[in-house]
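Tokens in:
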């Protein structure tokens, strides 16, 4: 089941599309033109609205839906026939477009509140396949890109904990051994291991960036990877939400075709950063033909264990550091557009 904040952000955005005078009337009407929203869900929304829970999200989501209903790139003042809410539905396969609402079988809307995460991927999916296809876990990414330094870290941790029952080689760790390390090393790294970990983290960062760039050998391949990084797809879709400070976000995610019509990728680069944990920085320099200027898009990737030190499959979270409305390929919309 979606959490309450998610339900508020997505369903109230949908309610804002119908042209009700205000949110109170929309909630009271409980329109059945929004699919997958039953009375149990409406009851939760009513209770949250009454007690002031997530008041900021209620307000912003309602405004976002109302603006999209009026704007030229959206519904242009025409009430929708049907709004489909994805809700707790789990896609049967990997979905490239992160849509939460589908309007009249045509408009795809992603409701993104308080997050600058572009992808939550496996390192193999990101650094080995360049986000081109989803892959199953192919082993320990840390061991793959930094085998010697990672082994040194494991040996130092094993010696520090005097865990002689653990195997001498990190590749031989089983789930019980990983759980033992996770429990013993919970919290900050012990002082004796901190410098070793920072060196390993930098090696993982540097090697991960180099691994991907080696696979993106041409300018065309790097441009296509940037499209996937920014989640540009063959069909346009819309993002309605709020940034980390609560300011409204309303933009159209254009297609690679649109991108090439207006922009030219001058360069794309990635590099490892010495940041105390595996961190990869990325930067694209874009030439904007319409405005006659250069536009920079920046972000970073945090690579970490999913369930504590030495435990779980490493994950790679891709963050966008450039404000969304300044990103080439993201076209801001407002009530007058």
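Residues out:
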């Amino acid at each position: 089941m979606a959490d309450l904040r998610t339900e508020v952000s997505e369903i109230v955005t949908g309610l804002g599309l119908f042209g009700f005078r205000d949110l109170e009337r929309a909630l009271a009407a409980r329109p059945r033109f929004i699919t997958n929203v039953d009375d149990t869900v409406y009851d939760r929304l009513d209770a949250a609205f009454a007690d002031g829970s997530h008041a900021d999200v209620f307000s912003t989501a309602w405004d976002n839906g109302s603006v999209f209903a009026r704007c030229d790139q959206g519904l242009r003042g025409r009430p929708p026939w049907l709004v489909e809410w994805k809700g707790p539905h789990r896609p049967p396969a990997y979905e490239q477009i992160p849509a939460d609402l589908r309007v009249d079988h045509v408009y795809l809307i992603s409701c993104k509140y308080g997050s600058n995460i572009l992808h939550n991927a496996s390192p193999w999916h990101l650094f080995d396949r360049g986000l081109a296809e989803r892959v199953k876990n192919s082993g320990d990414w840390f061991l793959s890109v930094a085998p010697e330094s990672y082994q040194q870290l494991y040996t130092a941790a094993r010696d520090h904990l005097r865990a002689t029952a653990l195997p001498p080689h990190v590749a031989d760790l089983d789930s019980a051994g990983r759980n033992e390390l996770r429990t013993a090393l919970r919290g900050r790294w012990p002082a004796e291991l901190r410098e070793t970990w920072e060196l390993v983290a930098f090696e993982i960062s540097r090697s991960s960036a180099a691994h991907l760039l080696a696979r993106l050998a041409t300018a065309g391949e790097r441009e296509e990877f940037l499209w996937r990084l920014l989640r540009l797809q063959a069909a346009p879709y819309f993002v309605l939400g709020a940034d980390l400070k609560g300011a409204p976000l309303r933009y159209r995610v254009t297609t690679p075709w649109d991108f090439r019509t207006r922009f030219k990728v001058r360069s794309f680069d990635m590099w490892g950063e010495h940041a105390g944990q595996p961190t990869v920085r990325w930067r694209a320099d874009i030439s904007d033909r319409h405005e006659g200027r250069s536009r920079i898009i920046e972000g970073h990737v945090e690579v970490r264990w999913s369930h504590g030190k030495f435990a779980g499959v490493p994950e790679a979270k891709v963050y966008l550091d450039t404000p969304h409305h300044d990103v080439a390929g993201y076209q801001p919309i407002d009530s007058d557009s």
